[in-house]
Specification:
The protein is elongated and about 60 Å long. With 246 residues, it is of the alpha/beta class. The strands form two sheets. The protein has a seven-stranded mixed sheet with strand order 3-2-1-4-5-9-6, with helices on both faces. Strands 7-8 form a two-stranded antiparallel sheet. Helix content is 39%, strand content 17%. Helix 5 links the parallel strand 4 (86-92) and strand 5. It has a single domain (3-245), classed as Vaccinia Virus protein VP39 (Rossmann fold, 3-Layer(aba) Sandwich).
């Protein structure tokens, strides 16, 4: 059983593609005529030229929309396709779940002819995000155990360009940092279920911090403390896009 067999049941509802982030990812893929998505989940951000999705969780595969690329149930560490199978291979917010990062990157390099695109986060930036820093330090500590260093990824890829992915205030994709200007959303259990680090932590671990957040929202303390965020259009919450040419 994979992580997403137990925590991924709501992804089809809360983890929808954001068009601005999609545009950055699709630009990074360049003019690749064929794309394979590794750790594909429900298929968000797959461009029309996606020919195959690799996903270990049957729960996630079942949520892929009609018309999405065919999905193969397999892990990143052992992808059962031929060498040079696609011009570009992408992996979005997935590398931190892999059991053998080096093996997964090696497999991506094997099946990609021209380019690899990876969306991940920089823990050095993400740990300062107000939700984790002020309310859920236990979750920040958990992220420390699973975050993949940007430098390590670049080294495994043999070099890569690193782009900051600014998160819009009204981001349609409900990942961990998406609601930086909409703090009330973190009090919604359905929203939290779509964030693996919160879902895996469990409600008991989250309860005290979320109660303090609720109190601070009711009293206005959160808005006073984070007044600088209220007029911002985007935020650097640590999300990074790595683009490697082979």
């Amino acid at each position: 059983m994979t992580t997403y067999d137990t925590v991924g049941a709501t992804y089809g509802r809360t983890r929808r593609q954001d068009p601005r982030i999609a545009a950055q990812i699709h630009t990074a893929l360049g003019n690749a005529a064929t794309v394979i998505n590794v750790g594909a989940g429900t298929g968000s951000y797959e461009p029309p030229q996606t020919v195959l999705a690799i996903e270990p969780s049957s729960v996630m595969i079942a949520q892929r929309p009609t018309g999405a690329a065919p999905a193969l149930q397999a892990s990143a560490e052992s992808i059962p396709v031929a060498d040079d199978a696609a011009e570009a291979v992408m992996a979005l917010l997935t590398v931190h779940h892999w059991t053998d990062l080096a093996a997964g990157i090696e497999e991506m390099c094997r099946i990609a002819r021209r380019r690899i695109v990876i969306l991940t986060w920089d823990q050095n930036v993400n740990r300062t995000f107000w939700l984790l820093n002020e309310y859920l330090p236990e979750v920040a500590a958990f992220d420390e155990t699973r975050a993949v260093g940007i430098d390590r990824l670049v080294a495994l890829l043999g070099g890569a360009r690193v782009e900051t992915v600014p998160i819009p205030y009204d981001c349609a994709d409900g990942f961990g940092g998406a609601y930086w200007r909409r703090p009330e959303a973190y009090l919604d259990p359905v929203v939290r279920a779509g964030m693996s680090h919160l879902a895996q932590a469990g409600e008991e671990v989250l309860r005290a911090g979320l109660t303090r957040l609720s109190d601070d929202l009711s009293s206005g303390r959160w808005h006073e403390r984070h007044a600088d965020l209220l007029d911002r259009e985007t935020l650097d919450a640590g999300y990074r896009l790595l683009v490697a040419d082979l």
